Please model this.
Amino acid sequence: MSDRLKSLERIEQAQSWRHRMLEARLFELQRREAELERQQHELMASVNEYIGGYGQFVELLAAKSRRLEEQLAHIRQNKLRFAARLQEETRRLKLFGRLRARVETVVRREEEAKDLDRLIDLIGGKQAARLP
Model:
């Protein structure tokens, strides 16, 4: 395998690794978002359950609800950012795959041309040796 193809293979492996890491990060953000939404739902359920006469308790619940909402907003923003990066990485991987296919074609053609030149030299050399 030529040096160009080996280099392209290493680059492709690095890009694939980065793509997988972005996918994993996006999955983690989705998991955290679901967990925070569940916590928020539980909090609202407890507020509905204990709403009567507990002013201080309601203030604490409101503060916790506000923090959960801020965390959710932050996670959703990160999720959108990572989704955009993942889409860009996917586009790069596809583009790189097409580039690699072109380079492989060029390398293969160069090797075929070298093989043909060697074959012509071999055939030409044998015929020249046979002539008087």
In short: The two ends are 42 Å apart (CA to CA). The chain has one domain: 3-105. The chain has a mean pLDDT of 82. Residues 3-105 form one domain.
